[in-house]
């Protein structure tokens, strides 16, 4: 819902309100009615009483949609020590490096994009002025403290049918992966297993290395 859509509603809908009938021929009166409703809703939201606003059905719809969405998260960096520590069992796992354009073409997606990092919470009222999508803003926004992840998210076109429907298996072509990067603590067994899986596929196998002069990580130049 936006200011434009509210104005359109006033102009095209028939009702028994004399005030709205008069507003159809008076731009200043339309602006007064629209702004009055917006300010009333803003006051409710600022007092944590969104359930009392006209926006509450929209809010419930947004929350219901988010709870049923399938979202896949990637990082745009392969050399962040925290990511390797948290998501790769202390640098013992591996990282898949995708060709973005090929992967996006392979998958059935509703939306995708980079995550925006901010200390400001999502403001539902802003959507009234800029026609923004509150559900998309929530999906693609995280707290500033997570900026190091450099996250990129994919939203599947399907949504969950019920509470037990909690994942989707996405198939992508071998061509979408151009490199597998081993953690610097990965074992020889891990290497052998991955080598067996990729076999003769045109996928580069590399390994993370750590600087001799600090904790900085980089992708080694050697191919395995």
Labels describing this entry:
about 220 residues; alpha/beta; 2 domains; four-stranded mixed β-sheet; three-stranded antiparallel β-sheet; 9 helices; DUF2971 domain-containing protein; DUF2971
Written overview of the protein:
The protein is built from nine helices and nine strands. The protein has two domains: 3-54, no CATH class; 66-219, no CATH class. The protein has a four-stranded mixed β-sheet. It has helices at residues 3-12, 18-23, 27-46, 56-67, 81-87, 100-106, 127-130, 134-139, 188-198, and strands at 69-75, 94-98, 109-114, 116-118, 141-143, 151-159, 177-182, 204-210, 217-219. InterPro entries: DUF2971 (IPR021352). This is DUF2971 domain-containing protein.
Please give the structural blueprint.
Layout: H1 3-12, H2 18-23, H3 27-46, H4 56-67, E1 69-75, H5 81-87, E2 94-98, H6 100-106, E3 109-114, E4 116-118, H7 127-130, H8 134-139, E5 141-143, E6 151-159, E7 177-182, H9 188-198, E8 204-210, E9 217-219
Parallel strand pairs: 4-5, 7-8
Antiparallel strand pairs: 1-6, 2-7, 3-6, 8-9
């Amino acid at each position: 819902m936006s200011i434009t859509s509210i104005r359109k509603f006033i102009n095209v809908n028939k009702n028994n309100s004399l005030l709205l009938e008069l507003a159809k021929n008076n731009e200043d009166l339309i602006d007064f009615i629209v702004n009055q409703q917006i300010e009333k809703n803003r006051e409710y939201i600022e007092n944590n009483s969104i359930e009392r606003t006209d926006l509450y059905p929209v809010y419930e719809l947004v929350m219901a949609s988010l709870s049923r969405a399938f979202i896949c998260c990637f990082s745009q960096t392969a050399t962040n020590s925290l990511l390797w520590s948290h998501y790769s069992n202390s640098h013992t796992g591996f990282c898949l490096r995708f060709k973005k354009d090929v992967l996006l073409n392979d998958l059935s997606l509703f939306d995708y994009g980079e995550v925006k990092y901010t200390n400001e919470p999502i403001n539902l009222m802003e959507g009234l002025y800029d026609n923004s999508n509150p559900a998309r803003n929530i999906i693609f926004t995280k707290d500033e403290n997570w900026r190091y992840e450099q996250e990129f998210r994919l939203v599947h076109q399907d949504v969950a049918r019920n509470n037990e429907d909690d994942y989707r298996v996405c198939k992508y072509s071998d061509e979408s992966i151009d490199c597998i990067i081993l953690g610097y603590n990965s074992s020889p067994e891990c290497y052998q297993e991955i080598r067996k899986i990729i076999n003769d596929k045109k996928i580069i196998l590399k390994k993370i290395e750590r600087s001799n002069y600090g904790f900085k990580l980089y992708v080694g130049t050697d191919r395995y």
